[in-house]
């Protein structure tokens, strides 16, 4: 049985925080692999300054290429939008009926809005969630604080990096290069992304 952590995200663009999280999960948990699932359209996000799926995928591919246990996934590209995670999970269990044990990975900010996700109870009935610490506003709902399926990742480096910050500061002409895997910076710079 291969244990796979599904790390869903918009990755607009993938940043060093995402990569550190994915790597931390495979190195310090019993997961065999982490799949970075690039979401075409997150239910809670607008399309403003959202790069094309294929470009976001390409940056995740290049960022994870040197890491054997980290894989990009295009599984949501042909699913209906906005992409509800419960729908993707149902599709994955049909596509991989045997040999895979899936769980979810998310940042703490996402756990704070998890009670608003479509059929979140169904997700929790069937999957465990690894929650990576992140400084963010809001509170974790009481029901998730000591839930048997929700595991907070301890002893992990907390990173105040976000794709929003990177897009914004890059547009203002600031140097945000150290916050991105080098391949991502190169691709983004060559393609002139997020400049206007
Ligand atoms: N610095 C971080 N620390 C912990 N979790 C993070 C961090 N950055 C992103 N995540 C988590 O990674 C997943 C995908 O994040 P996403 O692609 O939305 O990145 P983001 O930086 O939050 O983007 P944006 O600023 O555009 O909202 C989410 O579960 C999010 O909580
Ligand atoms: O299924 C839902 O209702 C749902 C609501 C909000 C977010 N998600 C998923 O969570 C992932 C991270 O979301 P975001 O908005 O932080 O990029 C992304 O893959 C979304 O599809 C899913």
From TrEMBL:
HAMAP family (UniProt xref): NaMN_adenylyltr
Function: Catalyzes the reversible adenylation of nicotinate mononucleotide (NaMN) to nicotinic acid adenine dinucleotide (NaAD).
Protein name, per record: Probable nicotinate-nucleotide adenylyltransferase
A Pfam family it matches: CTP_transf_like
Pathway the protein acts in: Cofactor biosynthesis; NAD(+) biosynthesis; deamido-NAD(+) from nicotinate D-ribonucleotide: step 1/1
Gene Ontology process terms (BP): NAD+ biosynthetic process
Stored CDD domains: NMNAT
EC class of the enzyme, as a word: transferase
One Gene Ontology term of the molecular function aspect: ATP binding
Keyword tags: ATP-binding, NAD, Nucleotide-binding, Nucleotidyltransferase, Pyridine nucleotide biosynthesis, Transferase
InterPro entries named among the record's database cross-references: Cyt_trans-like (IPR004821), NadD/NMNAT (IPR005248), Rossmann-like_a/b/a_fold (IPR014729)
Residue ranges constituting the Cytidyltransferase-like domain according to the UniProt record: 6-168
Family stated for the protein in its record: Belongs to the NadD family.
Record flagged with keyword Ribonucleoprotein: no
Known EC number: 2.7.7.18
Coiled-coil features, chain-numbered ranges: none
Catalyzed chemical reaction(s): nicotinate beta-D-ribonucleotide + ATP + H(+) = deamido-NAD(+) + diphosphate
Originating organism: Cellulophaga algicola (strain DSM 14237 / IC166 / ACAM 630)
Classification of source organism: Bacteria, Pseudomonadati, Bacteroidota, Flavobacteriia, Flavobacteriales
Superkingdom of origin: Bacteria
């Amino acid at each position: 049985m291969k244990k796979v952590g599904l790390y869903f995200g918009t990755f607009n663009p993938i940043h060093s925080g995402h990569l550190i999280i994915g790597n931390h999960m495979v190195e310090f948990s019993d997961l065999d692999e982490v799949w970075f699932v690039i979401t075409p359209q997150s239910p809670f996000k607008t399309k403003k300054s959202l790069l094309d799926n294929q470009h976001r995928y390409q940056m995740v591919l290049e960022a994870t290429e040197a890491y054997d246990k980290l894989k990009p996934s295009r599984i949501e590209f042909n699913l209906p939008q906005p992409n509800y995670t419960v729908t993707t999970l149902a599709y994955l269990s049909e596509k991989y009926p045997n040999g895979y044990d899936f769980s979810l990975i998310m940042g703490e900010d996402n756990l704070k809005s998890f009670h608003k996700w479509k059929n979140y109870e169904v997700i929790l009935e069937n999957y465990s969630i690894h929650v990576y610490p992140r400084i963010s506003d809001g509170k974790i709902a009481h029901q998730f604080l000591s839930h048997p399926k929700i595991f907070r990742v301890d002893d992990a480096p907390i990173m105040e990096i976000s794709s929003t910050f990177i897009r914004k500061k890059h547009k203002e002409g600031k140097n945000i290069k150290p916050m991105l895997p080098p391949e991502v910076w190169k691709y983004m710079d060559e393609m002139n992304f997020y400049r206007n």
